[in-house]
Amino acid sequence: MKRLRILVIVRAGLIPPDTMEGYTDKEIEEWKCEYDVIQTLREQGHDVHPLGVYDDLAPLKDAITDWKPDIAFMLLEEFHGVTLYDHAIVSYLELMQQPYTGCNPLGTILSRKKALAKKVLLYHDLPTPQFAVFPKGRAARLPKHLKFPLLIKSDGEDASHGISQASVVRDEAALKNRVSFLHESSGGDALVEEYIEGRELYVGVIGNDRLQTFPIWEMDFNRMPDDQARIATAKIKFNEAYRKKYGVTTRAARNIAPETQRRIVRICKQVYRELSMSGYARMDLRLTEDNRIYVLEANANPNLSYGEDLAESAEMAGVSYEMLLEKIIRLGLQYEAPWQA
Known about the structure:
The protein has helices at 25-43, 58-67, 86-95, 105-112, 114-123, 172-186, 234-238, 240-246, 258-274, 309-316, 321-334, and strands at residues 5-11, 47-53, 71-74, 131-134, 150-154, 168-169, 190-194, 199-206, 212-213, 217-220, 249-252, 280-287, 293-300. The chain is of the alpha+beta class. Helix 3 (86-95) runs antiparallel to helix 4. The chain is globular and about 60 Å long. The mean pLDDT is 94.
């Protein structure tokens, strides 16, 4: 790929230093993804300009107008602290006729609003747990079609925010308490869905029209006590000591029958298309003992850190980290936004 001018858009305060030396693991965790992407692109010979954005679009407009990047590498997941506004940043890039990496605005908002995504999936007969939305400010009344145990999470947050062992509830009292807690802590609606006991699987999908899936990945809960739900809580995702304590790791999935693997790939690609996604994504699924597949979430623009699930599964497919970033850039340059039609 020729040398490109790449504007890397990150959250203000997360522009990484030029080196990791002298920083603790906890400090590095905050900006590791940004560091990995920026340094790798520079090592590949690109002209890279990081830009921090929080609640003002003027610097972004100035960078596009004055610097004229070939592409914007989208690592921003929120605006003004609101995760649901990430689609608005992508929409702004399209209004500025600026090519960008990752998912388009429609795919971003459809996948970000979990209840909306599940409605689309159910319409297309794609397997997803039964659910209900409990709007903030209303009493939690359990619909007849939902049976305990249930999993409660935010309708708009990502990265397991607000998910803990207490998110799995088994009676009315626990349901009301958790919904109330989530309303207060997230400030938004609560999504209540059927809890599916089974294996936690992840599948990376990349492409605009022609789609490629990476090898199926799995979260191994290893020494997790039997009385705890095997779910990807915020503690598991963000607390390394907790993961080590229970031996929680992610790795290539084992012992899945070839036919089941083909069904998983087929379902993931259809989910990607029905949610109008582009660029790259990660599908979160559950696989039961009797090989039933459930789509939990479709995640646009998942974590791109070197050594994380998406990069590791790509590596197993023969796609190095450098090649993965180049693929993502190429897809961004090839994507036909409405202004180009």
